[in-house]
Amino acid sequence: MDSSLDAGTDGETPIEGVEALDHTADVGIRVMADALPELYRRAALGALWMALGVPPDPGEEVRTLEVTAGDHPDLMRRWLREVLFLQEVEGFVAGSVDPLDLTPGPSGIGLVATLRGGPSPRHPVREIKGVTWHGLQVEERRPGEWFAQVIFDV
Amino acid sequence: MKLERLDDHRWRLPRQGRMRVDGLIFADDRLIRDIQGDPSVEQVANVATLPGIVGHSIGMPDIHWGYGFPIGGVAAFDPEEGGIISPGGVGYDINCGVRLHRSNLQVEEVRPHLARLMDDLFQRIPAGVGRGYRKFVLSDADVREVLVKGAAWAVEIGHGRPQDLERIEDGGTLAGADPDQVSRRAVQRGRDQVGTVGSGNHFIEVGWVDQVFDPEAAELLGLTRGTVTIFVHSGSRGLGYQVCDDALEVMMTAVGKYGIDLPDKQLACVPVRSPEGEDYIGAMRAAANYAFANRQVMGHRIREAFAAVFDAPEETLGMELVYDVAHNNAKLERHAVDGRERDLWVHRKGATRAFPPGHPDLPEAYRELGQPVFIPGDMGRYSFVLLGTPGGYAETFGSTCHGAGRRKSRRQSKRDTRGRDLKREFAEQGIEVRASSGATVAEEVPEAYKDVAEVVEVVHRAGIGRKVARLRPLGVLKG
pTM for this structure? Predict the structure, then answer.
């Protein structure tokens, strides 16, 4: 039995701008960034941190993701859902996300991102059933200060 | 929101605002204070606003806040009155449930072999998350069979006994499953997860009957004092989660089409009698069948493990399935409301069906006794076996509680256990733990949970479940 515990407890934040949320039954993240694309990038790494128990490692394999939604909360949910699907089903863990572009359009907001990563040497510590709408927030609190909150059903 | 105390175990939330019915929460004075510490009561009220709800919006004594619907909530909707169907009222883990096997072994016969038994189970039954644990990779055609046939599929391929099926809710197969409504992504997530426990609060537990409350019922169930038992707690895994996710996405958009005004977006729903409603029902039943198959395969492997470790045929060891019951689903059931029999969509999210003696849906063996109900506690203390009651059938659409509920967050639990050798602590209590992740064990320690005995006591005293026996853990397998 692996007796190590998740990193990130006791106030540690292993990913810049991402902190773990206390929630009785599930897990969540709060994310802060000075630009919207950076918010999405950090949120993806934060979601993988929740699944793996440690921040994801960089890798050489490249994947591209494209997601569209009507608003930013829904876009964030769909984006993280895709990132976690790659991890859960295809064993691809995104260690870095760059570039990530957001494009408003007539049918909503489009996100295109390049992910670099690969198989994780660690087994995930928890199974994320879904990215919920519960307490889901993506907002600019002050000019240049973006905030997101996401709760994952485990 | 102000609650009115009806008696020692019942609280009424009077209809107010947009509520169509009253709320009814089962709790004693102590539990109600806990319940009022989170938004559960508000969620009971929100559920009461949904179209077609009949009776009450119900909260069990283990109620706590969830996504839209509270966990530990029960609500029934009449399609004749525009009643709705809601994925949030079922939960992400469609047909998460519990099965209990009993053996002919006594606790003192098993203790000397416990470590080896737990090692064997840990080898045979994939637990945890991630690749490399998969032992059953199904083709698309196989997955389709699983979605239609449920536990019967597992028995057909030699995983279990034909007589197991009558000891599973609905015979282990929900009719009306529509695999065409299960997305490609859901199939991808579930293709290699049949026969796996999962992680989080899912487990397999070898235990024993340490206390009997109803000797006659315990005897009939094969659960006399000292009997070694095995629990399986798991559900529809990634396939079910995806079915829920897909349906929520559809209904978030469709809800406006039907003019349903929601107090909480996560109550997304559509009329039962709508294309979206019918599609979800077909997919939900398919996912439920997947969960039945999942638990059936694990039950088979448990029998194999016991046969190997005790070097005896499984039939000699007994290993009968006592029952397998869901605590996350929506079912079309006939119930009397205001003196009139009606076909209702009963949503149980973190609540267990508990049909009374005489109910025609029960297997012959339990028709006079009532339906067995299993209430797992935490991994260190105890769990309970109950039976369904006529009182419960009348008040709660034949439903009762499902567990204890957490009292600490996962992070808090890990902080509080940092530096402790949990495996050794459990071993000192005589409990062998096997887990693929120490972090999971840290999150799932007993002190992270409320005391399930309190919850069960309320259920028993309120007459919505009847205590039969208490089980204690010997070995726990976690993901």
Answer: 0.95
